[in-house]
Write a structure and sequence with these properties.
Distance between the termini: 14 Å
Largest sheet: 7 strands, mixed
Structural class: alpha/beta
Number of helices: 6
Strand content: 25-35%
Order of helices and strands: EHEEEHEEEEEEHEHEHEEEEEEEH
Number of strands: 19
Radius of gyration: 21 Å
Helix content: 10-25%
């Protein structure tokens, strides 16, 4: 039984590192599986100005590395590995990590959600330099400028409306003239004087109207992607409750339907998706895992 872990944490963003810190300080010797995107979305962010405690801001990768170092100081162990499958039908839970099987008494899922991208050649290179998938994170940097939002669903409408706080003009670009957004969100965007609509269009460095094939340059200071996120929870289909978009459904913040399994951060948070809220739920998951193990003794 010595090879059975007390706690395994899947994911190494803000939620995962915070869960690692708390469980490590509780002397549970957590194992953190860093996943296919070590550091999560913050590792792709430049300056972070809205995380408490850094009055001058901090670079996203530096914040993540600080969290990792802090958790490691108390004994959290980190391993690179991708969870291929999981068996949550009985305890200890079994994780298939690449070619290795790992057993654990509790599991904290902090796998995050990956932003959907357009797939343009220059897109990834420009993340943090005018291309962003998070209006709340980066909108402030474009105060007084004209910017563009790509998308036609609720995410795009929310991003566009939020960005009007900073931008002089927000152009919402959509490839069709029909929107997937709910009527209430579409109405709010259309009633905002700063939001302008450009439809039947696909964006790159140039724009092309899908109906007329007209191509032209579109000057803008920044491009925000509002085409949603993909929660990284596919390996738990059929074992945990997922909503229609694949987010893990939790009750009382972090509890899943399986006792001893907790979800935190963006994999279960489709509303806020902030570093600080992810860290908060990571703390909650860690405390609940500790209590669960104490009751199990």
């Amino acid at each position: 039984m010595d090879n059975i872990r007390n706690v395994v944490i899947i994911g190494s963003g803000c939620a995962g590192h915070t869960a690692a810190l708390y469980t490590a300080r509780a002397k549970l010797k957590p194992l953190v599986l860093e996943g296919h995107e070590p550091g999560g979305q913050l590792s792709l962010t430049t300056l972070v100005e809205n995380f408490p405690g850094f009055p001058e801001g901090i670079q996203g990768p530096a914040l993540i590395e600080n969290m990792r170092t802090q958790a490691g100081r108390f004994g959290a162990r980190y391993e690179l590995g991708h969870v291929v499958s999981a068996d949550l039908s009985k305890r200890p839970f079994t994780l298939q990590v690449d070619k290795e099987k790992i057993l654990t008494q509790t599991l904290i899922i902090a796998t995050g959600a990956s932003a959907r991208w357009l797939g343009l050649p220059s897109e990834q290179a420009l993340i943090g330099h005018g291309v962003s998938s998070c209006a709340t994170c980066d909108g402030f940097f474009f105060s007084g400028k004209e910017i563009a939002v790509i998308g036609g669903g609720d995410s795009a409408m929310e991003e566009a409306i939020f960005l009007t706080r900073f931008a002089s003009k927000v152009t919402l670009i959509h490839r069709r003239d029909q929107f997937r957004a709910s009527k209430i969100m579409l109405d709010r965007a259309q009633q905002n004087d700063k939001v302008h609509f450009l439809t039947d269009t696909v964006t790159a460095l140039k724009l092309r109207n899908l109906k007329t094939d007209k191509v032209w340059d579109f000057p803008t200071s920044a491009m925000f992607l509002g085409i949603g996120h993909n929660p990284n929870a596919r390996m738990f289909e059929g074992q945990l409750d997922l909503d229609q978009d694949g987010y893990i459904i939790t009750k009382d913040y972090v509890f899943t339907r399986v006792p001893g399994v907790y979800a935190c951060g963006d994999v279960q948070d489709r509303r806020y998706r902030q570093a600080i809220t992810a860290a908060g739920t990571g703390c909650m998951a860690a405390l609940e895992a500790e209590r669960f193990l104490e009751q199990d003794e």
